Structure formats: C-alpha cells, structure tokens
Amino acid sequence: MEKSVFQIARDSYKPVLPKGLRTAVSLKETGATTSVGDQDEIKKMFPNTYGMPVVEFIEGIEGGHDPMNVGVILSGGQAPGGHNVITGLFDTLKKLNPHNRLFGFLLGPEGLVEHKYIEITETYVNDFRNTGGFDIIGSGRTKLETEDQFEKGYEILKYLGIKALVIIGGDDSNTNACVLAEYYKAKDYGVQVIGCPKTIDGDLKCEQIETSFGFDTATKVYSGLIGNIERDCNSARKYWHFVKLMGRSASHIALECALQCHPNMCLISEEVQEKDMSLNDVVDQICKVIAYRADRGMNYGVVLVPEGLIEFIPAIGRLIDELNDLLAFHGDEYKYLSTGEQREYILNHLSHKNKTTFETLPSDVARQLSLDRDPHGNVQVSLIETEKLLSRMCTHRLAKWKKEGKFSGKFASQHHFFGYEGRCAAPSNYDANYCYALGSSAAHLIANGKTGYMATVRNTYAPHDEWKAGGVPLTSLLNMERRNGEMKPVICKALVDLNGRPFKELVMHRDEWSKETSFVYPGPIQYWGPSEVCDRTTITLALERTE
Ligand code: FBP
Description:
Blueprint: H1 5-11, H2 19-22, E1 25-32, H3 39-45, E2 53-59, E3 69-75, H4 82-96, E4 101-105, H5 109-113, E5 117-120, H6 122-126, E6 139-140, H7 147-159, E7 162-169, H8 171-186, E8 192-197, H9 215-236, E9 240-245, H10 252-261, E10 265-266, H11 269-274, H12 279-295, E11 301-306, H13 309-312, H14 314-335, H15 339-349, H16 352-360, H17 363-369, H18 386-403, E12 413-418, H19 420-423, H20 429-447, E13 453-458, E14 468-473, E15 478-483, E16 486-491, H21 501-515, H22 531-534, H23 539-545
Parallel strand pairs: 3-4, 3-6, 3-7, 7-8, 8-13, 9-11, 9-12, 10-11
Antiparallel strand pairs: 1-2, 2-14, 4-5, 13-14, 15-16
Helix pairs in contact: 4-20, 9-10, 10-21, 12-18, 14-15, 14-16
Bound molecules: 1,6-di-O-phosphono-beta-D-fructofuranose.
The site of 1,6-di-O-phosphono-beta-D-fructofuranose (FBP) has 15 residues, from loops.
C-alpha cells in the first residue's frame, strides 16, 4: 500500500510499555471480585468465571512458554488505536516465543462464525503500526450469543489450534466475550477468551478501566474541528452552529469537547434525564441563551449536542423502551408493512401515554425510532439528526417570541455531525501507547492461563514508568439489564457522573461561556513536539484521576 509522508514518519514511533511489561513479567493477584450488580443471579449464570481476582503485571522472573496460536477479533465501531492493540499483542506473543502465531478473524465476530481469517505476519502487521482504522482485519457488529455460534467458532479455533481468543470491543462485545469465556470453560474446550476496552464513546470505564481506547484521539479530533468552527463563528458573527457529537448513550465526548473548547452551550443527556426535561424544555433553554446574546448584539454561537440526547429525554426514553419490546416481539409481522402501515401499526399497539409522545414527534424522528435496532438492540442514534431537529424547533420558538416581543435578534443556523471523522484518526501518542500496552497485557494474560479477563492499563495520567498493566475479570463488570425484551447480563455502561469532577467543571463555567464568547481553539492533534502538547491526556481523565 502506498504510504503518506505522515504515515512513513509515524511508522517509526515506538510505543512505550509500562515498566511491568518491559522485561520478564510476574503476576500479582488481589482478592476475589463480585459483579457491579445482581450478584446472586450473575454468580449463578457464570459459575466458572465469577469471583476471580484482579491481576497486575510486575517485573519478575518468567518461565519459558510453549508455542501457542492466538486469534483476534475487532468488534463494533472503529476507535483509534485498534491496530496498536494488535501490534502490541503480536510483538509480545513473538517475544514470549518466536513460534507463537496470531490469526485475525475478518470483519468482526462474523469471521469467527463463518471461518474467515488470515494469519497476521510480521510483514503484514508492520504496515499498520500507529495507524488509525480497523482495516487490518476489518470490524463488524455481529452479536455472538447463541450456542450454535459458539460451537461454529470452536470448530475453527480447534482447527487452527488456537489457545486463546482476544476480542477487542465495547461494552456489548465484551459482554459477548464474557459469555463466550464462560461457555468454553464450562465445556472444558481449553480456549481462553480475553477482552480489550474499546470505544470512542468513553462509556466503558470503572475503577480498573480508566478509559476506553480511542476516546482520547476522537475527542482531540472533534475539539480541533469545533475550535475551527468557533473561529469561523467568531469571525463571521452570523451563525449559530449546532454540532452533534458521537457517543451513542453517554455524553462523555460532548463533555470533553466542551471542556476543551468552551462553547456557548453543551447539552448533557444525563442531566436532561435527571432533570426530567422535555424536548420543549431543552429548546427553551437554548433559545434563552440565543436571546440573551442577541440582546447584546451577538447573533452567533456554538451549541454541542450529544448524539444520544433523544433517548435521554425521559418521555422519549419511555417510548423507546416500549418500541424496543414491540419490535422484539412483533418484529416479523411489522417488518413487511409499508412505511405508512408501520406508523399505523405502532400507533395501534402503543400505550396511551407513549402514543401521545410518538404523535408529537416530528415524523422523521418518529420514523427513525421505529426502524430496526442494531444487532445489540440499540436505536441507531447516529442516524437521527438531532442537531437539525433542535435548530428547527429553535427557529419556530424564536419566531413566536419575536411576535410576542421577547426576541429582537436574528437567528441563522449551520449544522454539523462529528463522529465518523474521528473514529479512524491516527492514534494520539496517548492512544498509541495505551493500546500497544493493552495488546501486550492481553498476551501476558493468555500466557498466564487467564480467561474471562479484560486487559487493563491503569495510572495512565502518570508518567509511563508508573503505568500499571494487568487484567480485570469480565464478570465483575456485569449487571442485569433489559435488552430486546428480556433481562440479560450486560456490562454496565458508565454514563456521565453528575457528581463527577468533569461535569462539575462544566457547571462551574457554563453560565459565563453562554453569555460571553470564551471560545478556546485546541488545534489539531500533535504527534511530535513539546510533551505538554503531544502527550497531554483528556481533561476528563485528568479531572477524574488526579486530586
Ligand atoms: P462502539 O460502541 O461499537 O464502539 O461504537 C460506538 C459508535 O461509534 C457510536 O458513537 C455511534 O453511535 C455508533 O458507533 C455508530 O455505529 P455505526 O458504526 O454502526 O454507524
């Protein structure tokens, strides 16, 4: 493949491993774990992998390792750094024993079930060092959940002599990894399963997982772009820019970008839910800021809108819950109806309260909520144009206020959606190092016979020498939630904590940012240069992990 000048230079970046992974590695184990919720139920469902200890790798004496074959899958949405997880895994496997081999299953979990794979060799892997994207083996969203899929997977794992499978994914994919680990252990198949925390959304985190990889790079890309828009906005002074930011449920991305860029407004879905706000309340809040600034001659500004907002508006959330059950139970008869008939069908089946909410939604949004869920049962919020919906509603509200003499300014809007632009960016130094260490950690978990673990790297706000690698039992991350009409064990999503420091920081400043123009322009990611520029972490991580 032809490489850009940037890529050629970036190829030679050498990710730094935490001290505990640099030479020979020993294992330190600390106490038994329990799941985050529904302990009795989860213990019963995962008798073979429940309660295992958290592990940490420290420098030590290591025995020799017999050669082994390992498989790897990239699952779900792309996140910067995925390639470095694979290069870290590959390099460590080869260091443990040069005869070790790595196989990549193609286009996500489907590759395992359909037996589509490649061997990842030194020459092949070298082209992907420090690059963005998941194209080394491709990704997909097939949900691994049936025994039939597990058995089909086992056929190919047995054929290739694979001792362990690494699943690099978000909360849903790691839930699958957990179920698969338990299944193979119960069957005594001798296949270990290890997960890796991936998602730009930043919602796969807990005490042991400081951040999911990709969040750092993606938020830097979006903040760079938002900064550019803010500069444009402050130059022309004639538009209100509505920027929707990815993050299916949690608003971590929007919050981080707000902390970096100081926009005039940043909606936080979790707060909207907590305050039981309606769509009208949200529009009202935005219009008040627009009117305040207009009164002072500022007919411009920037509003950040988290992608998942619509689901967090309590009335719409309740509607979605009922629609989820409806589609899960009646999906087959519903699927073949025309668009008009589908709307009728839904109106005839919804409870009175949710029917009223459904009827008041703009038809394009109502339609989107009634379409197929992704394989994990999620509404495809990236397809809902919330930023346009909000600005449209603001136009109507401000026109009404104008008639009532409450608004005398001008309102013209521009819309942006930043999501796919950041998911395949070249990983920042932070993500390049973090991911390489996660891959290396996964290799050591395998070499130490672990299964049902997620690879972890902690203390990443500190200098590299103080980073700590290890693993956390996947069962310790589970709780029971309703999915596709049934209660299922799933990894608990980490939403924005309204008592956490990042949100409090926003609250402390947002009044000032809405009234005055306080834009900050973070600029693009820097890969070389002064450490305070090119090694800086996200503000979220800094606030969450330091005093
Ligand atoms: P993951 O949870 O798999 O990491 O994906 C997250 C995400 O990037 C969301 O931010 C977004 O809503 C969704 O993927 C988009 O999905 P798709 O790639 O299927 O369009």
